[in-house]
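Journal club side-thread
Mid-discussion, someone asked how the predicted structure for our own chain would compare to the paper's figures. Pasting it here so we can look after the session.
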Amino acid sequence: MRVTQDSRYLGGVNEVTIITPIKQGRVDGGLLTWKEQLKAGIDSVQNRERRGIPTPIRLIPTIHFARWIIWEPPGEAGNSQLIFTSNFDGSMWQYLRDFADLIAGDVDKIWGNCVGYPE
């Protein structure tokens, strides 16, 4: 997992971008691939957002913007990556602490499909 933080800290707003390779193959004992399971999780969050149902990201009041994107580099089938980008108030330390304290289960459902995420 690679975390990139470009320190454009302006008026208390910070940003983060995380790029993580998605596991290849099928989910253990399942019918879906890791990428399909990840897409279903992201789609679920997006559908809740459209219907006005609280989403994990909405539980963290310091977030201005957050987005997950599944990206497959051209010509590199099977090397899909999850890109997460967000703008938020405060420090990176507090931001990551909020993720751990407020939405740990949802974070596991998303990044659990990625290489290097703890079991």
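Post-session note: The beta strands are 2-4, 13-21, 63-71, 81-89.
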